Amino acid sequence: MKTLKHFLMAALLLAVAVACGPKAPKAPKILVLYYSQTETTKTVAEAIATRLGADIEAIAPVAPYNGTYQETIERGRKELQEQSFPAIQPLTAAISAYDVIFLGYPIWFGTYANPIATLLDEVDFSGKKIVPFCTFGSGGLEASVRNLTAKLPESTILPGYGVRSARIEAMPDEIDRFLKVGGFLAGEVEPLADFPDAHPASEAEAAIFDAAVGDYPMIHATAAFVADRAIPGGTEYCFTSIDLPREGMPQREPQEFKIYVTALDGQPPVFTRVVR
Ligand SMILES: Cc1cc2nc3c(=O)[nH]c(=O)nc-3n(C[C@H](O)[C@H](O)[C@H](O)COP(=O)(O)O)c2cc1C
Asked: Residue 95 is part of which domain span?
Protein backbone atom coordinates (compact mmCIF):
# COMPACT_ATOMS: atom_id res chain seq x y z
CA MET A 1 0.00 0.00 0.00
CA LYS A 2 2.81 2.34 1.02
CA THR A 3 4.61 1.55 -2.26
CA LEU A 4 1.49 2.38 -4.29
CA LYS A 5 1.15 5.70 -2.42
CA HIS A 6 4.80 6.54 -3.16
CA PHE A 7 4.32 5.60 -6.79
CA LEU A 8 1.20 7.81 -7.13
CA MET A 9 2.97 10.71 -5.42
CA ALA A 10 5.98 10.38 -7.77
CA ALA A 11 3.68 10.25 -10.82
CA LEU A 12 1.84 13.38 -9.60
CA LEU A 13 5.11 15.27 -9.05
CA LEU A 14 6.31 14.26 -12.52
CA ALA A 15 3.05 15.47 -14.12
CA VAL A 16 3.33 18.83 -12.28
CA ALA A 17 6.99 19.17 -13.34
CA VAL A 18 6.11 18.50 -17.00
CA ALA A 19 3.19 20.95 -16.91
CA CYS A 20 5.30 23.72 -15.33
CA GLY A 21 8.54 23.06 -17.22
CA PRO A 22 9.80 24.95 -20.31
CA LYS A 23 7.28 24.72 -23.14
CA ALA A 24 8.17 24.09 -26.80
CA PRO A 25 7.73 27.39 -28.72
CA LYS A 26 4.25 27.67 -30.23
CA ALA A 27 4.33 27.49 -34.04
CA PRO A 28 3.14 30.83 -35.48
CA LYS A 29 -0.29 30.77 -37.10
CA ILE A 30 0.18 31.71 -40.75
CA LEU A 31 -2.28 33.00 -43.34
CA VAL A 32 -1.47 33.43 -47.02
CA LEU A 33 -3.66 36.30 -48.22
CA TYR A 34 -3.39 37.40 -51.82
CA TYR A 35 -4.94 39.19 -54.76
CA SER A 36 -4.34 37.85 -58.25
CA GLN A 37 -6.06 39.08 -61.39
CA THR A 38 -4.64 36.62 -63.92
CA GLU A 39 -3.53 33.85 -61.51
CA THR A 40 0.25 34.36 -61.62
CA THR A 41 0.39 35.56 -58.02
CA LYS A 42 -2.06 32.77 -57.14
CA THR A 43 0.57 30.15 -58.13
CA VAL A 44 3.06 31.75 -55.74
CA ALA A 45 0.44 31.96 -52.98
CA GLU A 46 -0.41 28.28 -53.40
CA ALA A 47 3.27 27.27 -53.41
CA ILE A 48 3.79 29.10 -50.09
CA ALA A 49 0.61 27.75 -48.47
CA THR A 50 1.36 24.17 -49.54
CA ARG A 51 4.92 24.27 -48.20
CA LEU A 52 3.85 25.82 -44.88
CA GLY A 53 0.54 23.98 -44.47
CA ALA A 54 -0.93 27.46 -44.00
CA ASP A 55 -4.46 28.76 -44.47
CA ILE A 56 -4.96 30.62 -47.74
CA GLU A 57 -7.50 33.20 -48.89
CA ALA A 58 -7.92 35.22 -52.07
CA ILE A 59 -9.02 38.86 -51.97
CA ALA A 60 -12.01 39.33 -54.26
CA PRO A 61 -13.04 42.75 -55.60
CA VAL A 62 -16.83 43.14 -55.61
CA ALA A 63 -16.58 44.20 -59.28
CA PRO A 64 -13.82 41.94 -60.66
CA TYR A 65 -11.27 43.25 -63.15
CA ASN A 66 -12.41 40.95 -65.94
CA GLY A 67 -11.84 43.12 -68.99
CA THR A 68 -8.94 43.09 -71.41
CA TYR A 69 -5.43 44.01 -70.25
CA GLN A 70 -5.91 47.52 -71.65
CA GLU A 71 -9.28 47.90 -69.89
CA THR A 72 -7.69 46.85 -66.59
CA ILE A 73 -4.89 49.37 -67.13
CA GLU A 74 -7.40 52.15 -67.80
CA ARG A 75 -9.68 51.29 -64.87
CA GLY A 76 -6.72 50.81 -62.52
CA ARG A 77 -5.08 54.09 -63.55
CA LYS A 78 -8.33 56.03 -63.07
CA GLU A 79 -8.81 54.52 -59.58
CA LEU A 80 -5.25 55.41 -58.68
CA GLN A 81 -5.53 58.98 -59.95
CA GLU A 82 -8.80 59.46 -58.07
CA GLN A 83 -7.60 57.41 -55.04
CA SER A 84 -10.96 55.59 -55.24
CA PHE A 85 -9.97 51.97 -54.71
CA PRO A 86 -12.33 49.04 -55.45
CA ALA A 87 -14.70 47.58 -52.87
CA ILE A 88 -13.64 44.06 -51.82
CA GLN A 89 -15.64 41.15 -50.40
CA PRO A 90 -15.32 40.74 -46.62
CA LEU A 91 -12.54 38.33 -45.63
CA THR A 92 -13.50 34.89 -44.37
CA ALA A 93 -10.39 34.61 -42.20
CA ALA A 94 -10.20 36.54 -38.92
CA ILE A 95 -6.87 38.36 -39.20
CA SER A 96 -6.69 38.61 -35.40
CA ALA A 97 -6.25 34.82 -35.23
CA TYR A 98 -2.93 34.90 -37.14
CA ASP A 99 0.63 35.85 -36.20
CA VAL A 100 2.11 36.04 -39.69
CA ILE A 101 0.39 37.13 -42.90
CA PHE A 102 2.02 36.38 -46.24
CA LEU A 103 0.52 39.18 -48.35
CA GLY A 104 0.64 38.65 -52.11
CA TYR A 105 -0.20 40.90 -55.06
CA PRO A 106 0.67 41.74 -58.66
CA ILE A 107 2.58 44.98 -59.11
CA TRP A 108 0.35 47.63 -60.66
CA PHE A 109 1.79 51.01 -61.61
CA GLY A 110 4.96 50.34 -59.64
CA THR A 111 3.28 49.27 -56.37
CA TYR A 112 0.75 46.81 -54.90
CA ALA A 113 -2.41 46.31 -56.98
CA ASN A 114 -5.42 48.51 -56.17
CA PRO A 115 -7.47 45.88 -54.23
CA ILE A 116 -4.59 45.73 -51.72
CA ALA A 117 -4.95 49.49 -51.15
CA THR A 118 -8.58 48.82 -50.12
CA LEU A 119 -7.55 45.90 -47.90
CA LEU A 120 -4.97 48.01 -46.05
CA ASP A 121 -7.55 50.75 -45.45
CA GLU A 122 -10.19 48.35 -44.14
CA VAL A 123 -8.41 45.62 -42.18
CA ASP A 124 -6.41 45.99 -38.98
CA PHE A 125 -2.95 44.44 -39.37
CA SER A 126 -1.41 46.06 -36.29
CA GLY A 127 0.91 43.79 -34.34
CA LYS A 128 1.14 41.31 -37.23
CA LYS A 129 4.23 40.19 -39.09
CA ILE A 130 3.72 40.76 -42.80
CA VAL A 131 5.71 38.91 -45.45
CA PRO A 132 5.09 40.59 -48.83
CA PHE A 133 5.32 38.63 -52.08
CA CYS A 134 4.52 39.72 -55.60
CA THR A 135 4.70 39.04 -59.31
CA PHE A 136 5.46 41.64 -61.94
CA GLY A 137 6.39 42.30 -65.55
CA SER A 138 9.68 43.95 -64.68
CA GLY A 139 9.80 44.94 -61.04
CA GLY A 140 8.32 46.70 -58.08
CA LEU A 141 8.80 44.64 -54.90
CA GLU A 142 11.01 47.29 -53.30
CA ALA A 143 8.69 50.24 -53.98
CA SER A 144 5.63 48.26 -52.85
CA VAL A 145 7.41 47.30 -49.61
CA ARG A 146 8.29 50.96 -48.97
CA ASN A 147 4.61 51.83 -49.44
CA LEU A 148 3.45 48.94 -47.21
CA THR A 149 5.86 50.01 -44.48
CA ALA A 150 4.54 53.58 -44.61
CA LYS A 151 0.91 52.39 -44.65
CA LEU A 152 1.27 49.86 -41.79
CA PRO A 153 3.45 51.51 -39.13
CA GLU A 154 2.07 49.17 -36.44
CA SER A 155 3.06 45.99 -38.32
CA THR A 156 6.45 44.40 -38.83
CA ILE A 157 7.20 44.12 -42.54
CA LEU A 158 9.62 41.22 -43.10
CA PRO A 159 11.79 40.71 -46.22
CA GLY A 160 9.72 39.90 -49.28
CA TYR A 161 9.84 37.85 -52.46
CA GLY A 162 9.15 38.98 -56.01
CA VAL A 163 9.32 37.23 -59.36
CA ARG A 164 8.79 38.28 -62.97
CA SER A 165 5.78 36.53 -64.44
CA ALA A 166 8.04 35.53 -67.39
CA ARG A 167 10.26 33.59 -64.92
CA ILE A 168 7.49 31.91 -62.95
CA GLU A 169 9.06 28.47 -63.62
CA ALA A 170 11.99 29.55 -61.40
CA MET A 171 9.59 30.30 -58.52
CA PRO A 172 9.34 26.88 -56.78
CA ASP A 173 13.10 26.67 -56.09
CA GLU A 174 13.30 30.36 -55.20
CA ILE A 175 10.35 30.04 -52.81
CA ASP A 176 11.97 27.05 -51.07
CA ARG A 177 15.11 29.10 -50.53
CA PHE A 178 13.14 32.21 -49.47
CA LEU A 179 11.12 30.27 -46.87
CA LYS A 180 14.25 28.60 -45.48
CA VAL A 181 16.19 31.87 -45.25
CA GLY A 182 13.19 33.41 -43.45
CA GLY A 183 13.09 30.51 -40.98
CA PHE A 184 9.62 29.39 -42.08
CA LEU A 185 10.85 26.08 -43.52
CA ALA A 186 13.48 23.80 -42.02
CA GLY A 187 16.66 23.28 -44.03
CA GLU A 188 20.06 24.74 -44.74
CA VAL A 189 20.74 27.18 -47.56
CA GLU A 190 24.10 28.29 -48.88
CA PRO A 191 24.38 32.04 -48.12
CA LEU A 192 25.01 34.27 -51.15
CA ALA A 193 28.06 36.56 -51.19
CA ASP A 194 27.41 40.32 -51.10
CA PHE A 195 27.88 42.15 -54.39
CA PRO A 196 31.33 43.78 -54.51
CA ASP A 197 31.71 47.46 -55.54
CA ALA A 198 30.50 48.14 -59.07
CA HIS A 199 32.93 48.83 -61.92
CA PRO A 200 32.32 50.36 -65.36
CA ALA A 201 30.63 47.73 -67.56
CA SER A 202 32.98 46.20 -70.14
CA GLU A 203 31.85 45.49 -73.70
CA ALA A 204 31.31 41.82 -72.79
CA GLU A 205 29.23 42.77 -69.72
CA ALA A 206 27.22 45.31 -71.73
CA ALA A 207 26.49 42.50 -74.22
CA ILE A 208 25.14 40.35 -71.34
CA PHE A 209 22.91 43.26 -70.30
CA ASP A 210 21.64 43.77 -73.86
CA ALA A 211 20.94 40.05 -74.28
CA ALA A 212 18.96 39.99 -71.02
CA VAL A 213 16.79 43.08 -71.56
CA GLY A 214 17.03 43.44 -75.36
CA ASP A 215 13.50 42.47 -76.36
CA TYR A 216 11.65 43.78 -73.29
CA PRO A 217 9.65 46.75 -74.57
CA MET A 218 9.46 48.69 -71.27
CA ILE A 219 13.23 48.94 -70.90
CA HIS A 220 15.27 51.17 -73.16
CA ALA A 221 18.50 51.62 -71.28
CA THR A 222 22.25 51.19 -71.36
CA ALA A 223 24.52 49.49 -68.79
CA ALA A 224 26.89 51.95 -67.11
CA PHE A 225 28.27 50.05 -64.09
CA VAL A 226 28.09 46.45 -62.94
CA ALA A 227 28.91 44.22 -59.99
CA ASP A 228 28.65 40.43 -60.09
CA ARG A 229 28.60 37.52 -57.69
CA ALA A 230 28.51 33.74 -57.90
CA ILE A 231 25.13 32.06 -57.36
CA PRO A 232 24.37 28.32 -57.45
CA GLY A 233 24.85 27.26 -61.09
CA GLY A 234 25.95 30.61 -62.50
CA THR A 235 26.46 34.34 -62.02
CA GLU A 236 24.21 37.19 -60.94
CA TYR A 237 24.87 40.73 -62.19
CA CYS A 238 23.64 44.00 -60.72
CA PHE A 239 23.75 46.59 -63.51
CA THR A 240 23.46 50.29 -62.85
CA SER A 241 21.57 51.36 -65.94
CA ILE A 242 20.62 54.67 -67.48
CA ASP A 243 17.49 55.34 -69.56
CA LEU A 244 18.17 56.09 -73.23
CA PRO A 245 16.06 58.73 -74.99
CA ARG A 246 13.16 57.27 -76.99
CA GLU A 247 12.38 58.53 -80.44
CA GLY A 248 9.21 60.60 -80.60
CA MET A 249 8.87 60.70 -76.77
CA PRO A 250 9.24 63.85 -74.66
CA GLN A 251 12.87 64.03 -73.44
CA ARG A 252 13.34 63.94 -69.69
CA GLU A 253 16.30 63.83 -67.36
CA PRO A 254 17.94 60.36 -67.83
CA GLN A 255 17.27 58.22 -64.74
CA GLU A 256 19.63 55.78 -63.10
CA PHE A 257 18.25 52.46 -61.83
CA LYS A 258 19.33 48.89 -61.15
CA ILE A 259 18.64 45.85 -63.31
CA TYR A 260 19.49 42.41 -61.92
CA VAL A 261 20.47 39.74 -64.44
CA THR A 262 21.00 36.02 -63.87
CA ALA A 263 23.19 33.96 -66.21
CA LEU A 264 22.97 30.27 -65.42
CA ASP A 265 25.67 28.08 -66.94
CA GLY A 266 24.74 27.10 -70.52
CA GLN A 267 21.61 29.32 -70.58
CA PRO A 268 21.01 32.79 -72.03
CA PRO A 269 21.05 35.63 -69.46
CA VAL A 270 17.65 36.85 -68.20
CA PHE A 271 16.79 39.89 -66.15
CA THR A 272 15.13 39.10 -62.86
CA ARG A 273 14.02 42.54 -61.70
CA VAL A 274 14.26 46.27 -62.22
CA VAL A 275 14.69 48.38 -59.09
CA ARG A 276 13.86 52.07 -59.39
C1 LIG B 1 -3.17 47.41 -64.29
C2 LIG B 1 -1.81 46.77 -64.40
C3 LIG B 1 -0.67 47.49 -64.07
C4 LIG B 1 0.59 46.86 -64.11
N5 LIG B 1 1.70 47.61 -63.75
C6 LIG B 1 2.91 47.00 -63.73
C7 LIG B 1 4.07 47.72 -63.29
O8 LIG B 1 4.01 48.91 -62.94
N9 LIG B 1 5.26 47.08 -63.27
C10 LIG B 1 5.38 45.78 -63.65
O11 LIG B 1 6.48 45.27 -63.61
N12 LIG B 1 4.30 45.05 -64.05
C13 LIG B 1 3.07 45.63 -64.08
N14 LIG B 1 1.96 44.90 -64.48
C15 LIG B 1 2.13 43.47 -64.81
C16 LIG B 1 1.69 42.57 -63.64
O17 LIG B 1 2.33 42.95 -62.44
C18 LIG B 1 2.05 41.10 -63.92
O19 LIG B 1 1.50 40.69 -65.14
C20 LIG B 1 1.61 40.19 -62.80
O21 LIG B 1 2.36 38.99 -62.82
C22 LIG B 1 0.12 39.81 -62.87
O23 LIG B 1 -0.19 39.01 -61.74
P24 LIG B 1 -1.57 38.23 -61.60
O25 LIG B 1 -1.59 37.21 -62.72
O26 LIG B 1 -1.50 37.59 -60.27
O27 LIG B 1 -2.69 39.20 -61.73
C28 LIG B 1 0.71 45.50 -64.50
C29 LIG B 1 -0.45 44.79 -64.86
C30 LIG B 1 -1.69 45.42 -64.82
C31 LIG B 1 -2.93 44.64 -65.21
From this structure: 30-181
